[in-house]
Automatic annotation (TrEMBL):
Predominant location category: membrane
Coiled coil feature spans: none
Boundaries of every Major facilitator superfamily (MFS) profile domain copy: 21-433
Statement: the UniProt record of this protein carries the keyword DNA-binding: no
InterPro entries tied to this protein: MFS, MFS_dom, MFS_trans_sf
Signal peptide location: none
The protein, known as: MFS transporter
CDD domains given in the database record: MFS_ExuT_GudP_like (cd17319)
Gene3D superfamilies according to UniProt: MFS general substrate transporter like domains
Amino acid sequence: MTSRNEQDVEQRTMRKISWRLVPFVALMFFINFLDRTAISFAGPNGMSADLGLTALQFGLASGLFFIGYILLEVPSNLALHRFGARRWLARIMVSWGIVSLLFAWVSSVEGLYTLRVLLGIAEAGFFPGAILYLSSWVPAHQRSRILSLFYLAQPLTVVFGAPLAAALIEQHGLFGMAGWRVMFVGVSLPAIALGILALFWLVDRPQQAKWLNDEEKQWLTQALEAEHAAKSQAAHHSVRGIMRNGRVWTLCLIYFGFIYGLYALAFFLPTIIGGFQQQFGTTFNIMEKGAITGAPYLVAAVVMVFWSRDAARRGCKTWHIALPALVGGISVPLALYMDSPLATMLVIAVTASAIFAALPNFWTLPTQFLSGASAAAAIALINTLGNVAGFSAGYITGALHDATGAYTLPMLVVGGFMLLSALLMLWLNRQRSQPLPVTPFVQEH
């Protein structure tokens, strides 16, 4: 195969993967994040009143999702390896759709807590499993572009999900249900349907893809096998040694700050918008609240695309991550001191843009000094501990609101964590020139 012909085959193959697999898996991620954060729309639109929830109880319910998710993330990925990504991702979607559907009939605080824990258990492993699945189809030099397209689904979930949730909540009385209960039915059924469809749409290996011709299958298989062989021959750090590595734990703390900010906004932004009437004397209907909630994330999606494109062109620099962390840390509490809903939402848009500008670039860091199984172990550890922030953000934000009667202190805490991420990123950059001690590679599972 000539070099020119090989380039043509690569372009055709990647184009087919980009159109066949990436949009479908991104749609799965869209529904995944929508179901996970649906409680944020339900809370201020009837659920908190119907169940008698305080801000602390609402925050605890929001965060309880992450307990089962964190504990079962690694076992879920091991099961994905054993049963295949196609079947396991489909299983995850169907099971979380069923659990999410049950929220439509929850009648007590205790039942809400139980279902949030079960939802985390059902969803455990989806995000790293989806990343692993797409990575197994894409050579390393194409991977960042493909994964950035996948990651775009997260901010777009709020852009389109918030108006969708609002439209469903407005169907109050449908099936004799309150509007927030109708919403849970409306966002849960697509997860079940898409999970069933995944069994027929996804394939585990390139050799099974009927939409690739023989030449494309051969090129992709050879490229992935050559990459795997090169990694198996490279030097590795002990997976056990990763647990004692200061740089990895620094990355955990940096990621914690971003995820804390992400979920504090996701869970409490609709509630903050609901307070505009008392704060500014401005009233919005449910659809307007949904559109206002989604607007900052639309800005964030655009900023993420251009910021990531700049990082790819220049090579990811420290400031591609540290600067958004700094901007986000300052803008989070600043939003509470604005004198109008428009000014408040503009500042929140800056915060959301900062978080999403940093996240895709952050994931280039572990592989800059780790490879193979050690990199996989580090990424799993960072993602698992980062998700602890998902629980912490909901619980701490709700507790501090109940204690102070306002969101000022909770948002100062969010800003503090993001500023810490910026400082740690700068510190980590100073450590890069120092060689990382090599320890014998020990394969662990």
